[in-house]
Amino acid sequence: MGGVNKQELLRKIYDSSIGMNDYAHTLFKDEKFTITPVVTEINVIETSVSDLGYKDGALYSEIMDSALEKGFELCTLELAPHLRLQYTTQDDGPYLTVASNKTRNDETYPNGFYLRNNDDFLWLRGYRATSDWIWDSNSRFAFIAGGA
pLDDT digits over 85-104, tens only? Predict the structure, then answer.
């Protein structure tokens, strides 16, 4: 992760034929979407809501609390596009939400990014979810592995 500015990162996404929705573009423009100037290796772990102990689903805050208790760390917004560029073998269908802090306390503003492969077309999408949204037990999340 890191080593390129936002414009260069967007160019890599476009050059790789990765789709983006309006929410993803909004997040890219957010002043809290910062870029790491130096290339940094990050270890990412993928887990499900069920794996975090919630067999009947959970609120985002509960999912984050459980992940942090397990030693996982939240991702920066910058990590999502880099992960999308590297994770080209994602199975068709399921979403992978990149766990991060919201940039604003506004439920009409995008929360963060998720990755998706839909009919062999890769997406980097922004999403919105209210604080009372129950995430399904099969929902997948990406975190930074502890100690990274």
Answer: 999 999 997 899 999 999 99
The neighbour count for residue 17, using CB atoms within 10 Å, is 8
Q: Is 84 helix (H, G, I), strand (E, B) or coil?
A: helix
The pTM assigned to this predicted structure is 0.94
User: For residue 3, which phi and psi values (nearest 5 degrees)?
Assistant: 90, -5
First to last CA, the chain: 12
Could you read off the pLDDT of 57-86 as tens digits, one per residue?
999 999 999 999 999 999 999 999 999 999
**Tokens standing for residue 59:** 């609120």
Beta strands in the chain (DSSP E): 19-20, 44-48, 58-59, 96-98, 112-118, 121-127, 134-135, 140-144
Asked if residue 77 lies in contact with residue 33, where contact means CB atoms within 8 angstroms, the answer is yes
User: 137 with 51: CB under 8 angstroms?
Assistant: no
State whether residue 49 is helix, strand or coil.
coil
The Cα angle at residue 35 between residues 34 and 37, in degrees rounded to 5 = 145
